[in-house]
Design goal:
The chain has helices spanning about 35, 50-60, 65-80, 85-95, 100-115, 120-130, 135-145, 150-165, 170-180, 185-200, 200-215, 220-230, 235-250, 255-265, 270-285, 290-300, 305-315, 320-335, 340-350, 355-370, 370-385, 390-400, 405-420, 420-430. It has about 425 residues and is mainly α. Among the domains are: about 35-115, Tetratricopeptide repeat domain (Serine Threonine Protein Phosphatase 5, Tetratricopeptide repeat); about 255-320, Serine Threonine Protein Phosphatase 5, Tetratricopeptide repeat, CATH 1.25.40.10; about 330-433, Serine Threonine Protein Phosphatase 5, Tetratricopeptide repeat, CATH 1.25.40.10. Helix 16 (about 290-300) runs antiparallel to helix 17 and helix 17 packs antiparallel against helix 18 (about 320-335).
């Protein structure tokens, strides 16, 4: 009896490069001056009682008693219903406490009293953005600019929103206008760099980050953004240098540790990656990205127990992370927990239905358990995702042969052979005469 050549391809790579490890860009919305600073100017028309209550609110705010300050501003407004500064300050505190809907109500009152206060449109736009009312936010930023075409903050905020909405050309246009108004603001170049990075204009992004750093050599976020662009250009040592500079400026910059760890993993500095991830976890114990990156580095060092613990923690913190389930499945497969591996790959596929490697490995696992029909179904899916993958045709041919489908097996081996699989040609010659 001729021996059937079963050379199952163990396609078990750790997924690292296909997952974005928190490339967080710091294009935070720049709030207008009236929300960054509590208003202290009191017009002469304010009744003395309202003035006194307002000052009491300022005192409570300075002591960090925000709810107490809100209560006092409310009293001042009760005494003097047209008290614009009290509405503005109360809205600022509500924003700080993430009570965005109530903040918008206060901004509405201010605009009803004075519809030309362009700063308030910008502030209300920020609150709407936080509530994911992007259309309303865009309208407010635009209204602010119609009233004051030189209002820098509105261009910055509208540019950041356009970037979030992937209108990168529109974002660049707003940042260009902001630079024309004031070319000495480092934040504008940093944010334009972020948008260029999103557009995959990595060299343009680096140029903008460098301009931001020239204006502000202590701009940690600009070094961080430059590190991201370096990483995308595969300049890994340059990326490490930039992340290191960001960390030197801001030693508690957890995202910089996360990304530096990722790059160290790429260049096989696994111990360095583990050290950075551990520091990031110390700074932010809820960082699922840090646990995930550390798990990958531990896996590379063959510390499967340590990797398994970190993947478990990743899944606890990031239950939608398909790659964590996939990688944990690899560990289970290597530990001969085939059913456990299949369970994890099931979850990975549920989260990411086009997960080629998960189907491929699940097919291998099902073949190992002699579930040939299940293996055929998984290999059929990988062929659908990648019709040129010779391994999938070869493995499906093996499963079909074991299931008694000789004609189908020979057809798959023939296709695999045409795609360059030499083992398929051996099976074809031996079993398909």
């Amino acid at each position: 009896m001729k021996k059937l050549l079963f050379k199952i391809i163990l396609f078990f790579p750790i997924i690292t490069t296909t997952y974005s490890f928190g490339k967080y860009h710091n294009n935070e919305v720049l709030r207008s001056a009236s929300t960054d600073t509590i208003v202290k100017h009191l017009p002469s028309l304010v009744p003395p009682l309202a003035d006194s209550i307002f000052k009491s609110a300022l005192l409570k705010n300075s002591h960090g008693d925000y709810n107490g300050a809100i209560s006092e501003y409310t009293k001042a407004i009760t005494v003097y219903p047209n008290y614009i500064e009290a509405y503005v300050n109360r809205a600022f505190l509500k924003d700080s406490l993430k009570d965005y809907a109530s903040a918008i109500t206060d901004y509405n009152h201010v605009l009803a009293l004075n519809s030309k206060k362009f700063e308030i449109y910008t502030n209300r736009g920020n609150s709407k953005k936080n509530l994911q009312d992007y259309t309303g936010a865009m309208a407010d930023y635009t209204t602010a600019l119609e009233i004051n075409p030189q209002y820098l903050q509105a261009y910055l905020n509208r540019g950041a929103l356009k970037d979030d909405l992937k209108d990168y050309t529109g974002a660049i246009a707003d940042y260009d206008k902001a630079i024309a108004i004031n070319p000495k603001v480092s934040l504008i170049y940093n944010d334009r760099g972020n948008t260029r990075e999103h557009m995959q204009d990595y060299f343009g992004a680096i140029s903008d980050y460098d301009l931001a750093i020239t204006l502000n050599p202590q701009f940690a976020e600009a070094y961080y953004g430059k590190g991201v662009a370096d990483e995308d250009l595969k300049d890994y040592y340059g990326a490490i240098a930039d992340y290191t500079k960001a960390i030197t400026i801001n030693p508690v910059y957890s995202n910089a540790y996360v990304n530096r760890a990722y790059v160290k993993d790429i260049i096989h500095d696994d111990n360095g990656a583990i050290a950075d991830c551990t520091k990031a976890i110390d700074l932010d114990p809820q960082s699922g990205q840090s646990y995930y990156n550390r798990a990958n580095a531990k896996f590379d060092l063959n510390d499967q127990n340590g990797a398994l613990a970190d993947y478990n923690k990743t899944i606890q913190l990031m239950p939608e992370n398909a790659h964590a389930y996939y990688n944990r499945g690899l560990i289970k497969a290597y530990s001969n927990d085939t059913n456990g591996a299949i369970e994890d790959w099931n979850r990975a596929i549920n989260l990411y239905p086009d997960f080629f490697e998960a189907y491929q490995n699940r097919g291998i696992a099902k073949f190992t358990l002699q579930d040939y029909k299940g293996a055929i179904a998984d290999y059929s899916q990988t062929i659908k995702l990648n019709p040129k993958d010779e391994k999938s045709y070869f493995n499906r041919g093996n499963a079909k042969y074991m299931e008694g489908e000789k004609a189908g097996a020979c057809e798959d081996w023939s296709t695999a052979g045409e795609l360059g699989n030499k083992d398929a040609l051996i099976n074809l010659k031996t079993f398909c005469k």
